[in-house]
Queue: 2 jobs
Job 1
Amino acid sequence: MRAQIASGKTDPLYLLVGEDEVEKSALAADFADLVDEGLRAFNVERIHAGDMTTGERLAEGVGAIVSAVRTLPMMSPRRVVIVLQADVLLVPKRESEAAARALEELERLIAAPETSTVLVLVAGALDKRSRLYKLLSKQATLVECGVITDVADAERWVRNRVAAAGAQIDAAAARLIAQRAGIDVQRLRGDVDRLLLYAHGQKSINVADVRELVGPAALQDDWAMTNAIEDGRGGEALRQLALLLDAGAAPEKILGQLGWLVRSKFPAGSPSRLADAIEAVFRTDLDLKRSVAAPRVLLERLVVELCGKTGAYAAREMRAWSRDL
């Protein structure tokens, strides 16, 4: 697909599908390169299908997509229309005649795509038995993102990711990362991104670099973070939190674990800090729901607070943690 974009010889219809949201977003953004930068405001359109959950919204959304696709390019050989969260669009609930008509209109568009427009549908997991998916499998260029089935796939993913960043990695180093991270694309991405930052400026990344930075999955202890918090070891607790997040643990699950720690351990072990700890957990839960900041930042703040570090001491702890990273 990237080769087609570089050459300017693209197909009229693409389906980017898979669970790797970062890779899908990056690939979808690459299509803007088909249009000169000064003309993108007129010829590159992004449509979010996530709220097309009712028959009326579906009808309006499909109408907007069809109109965008059928619009002629302005001072450019082609337009680009990117539809995000298209799984909502492609697997809708048929709850009205308006929705049924909208899906029929979408099927007609897919069956006869506009040659002057590149339509990019970005979706998560789709039901391959559905009528629309079967039609797309015939009409669209399918690009699977983040589908890793074995260690060999993971090794190729590592090499491609490093090459895309303009770096080089020894075959043995790529193999070691793949063996330690397995087929978890989130952990692979986190390990490679940290490695690229660590080895910035080097001509090549080798096995020693990997061993220095990427720890074996077997050494990860799900309860090491809570144990470190009980002991008041803020730096170690933060390191264990990073391991959990990099391994793909959901922020909500980690918050639940911290809530259990406060409820179960603090009444006996730290009764004087119980009220503040409960308040900190509830505040973090609310901040996560409101997306006040990145989940990692909110959880790091909570861990520091639960370790009993406040004020200037907490600030020093966070700065020390940042230096270690």
Job 2
Amino acid sequence: MSNSNVIQYGAPISLAEAKLVVAAAEREAVSNGLAVIIVVVDSAAQLVLLERIDHTQFGSITVAIAKAETAVRFKRPTKAVEDALAQGGLALRLLTVPNISAIDGGIPLLRDGKIVGAIGVAGMLPSQDAQVAQAGAAVLHGTAAG
């Protein structure tokens, strides 16, 4: 039995598709003077592509990877986790979940309505990271998931 309302995982994003996603994200970052790390993982949360724009802090590498992994593993943008935690209360249980990022900038990537991977961006303010991630995600599905 399948729940048609539950988003499904699809075949993993290809390297060619990941390069298109990263190129679009890079254009957005460069046009706005943003030094960021851009990561694409596949539908199994495995790294496909990582790009570091010159002079981006090295610490943002692991943050970008964590954002992408969270978005694909939990089938939602990291902004949803950030917003849930901001509400407090029972949502604070999320703090006990291992390997979850609650910082905006991770977005699932969709092809034909299925999650094929995720993009994670880090290096600037979370809202700026998300702006860059949205530009990359739009390449595959017109608008970002979530």
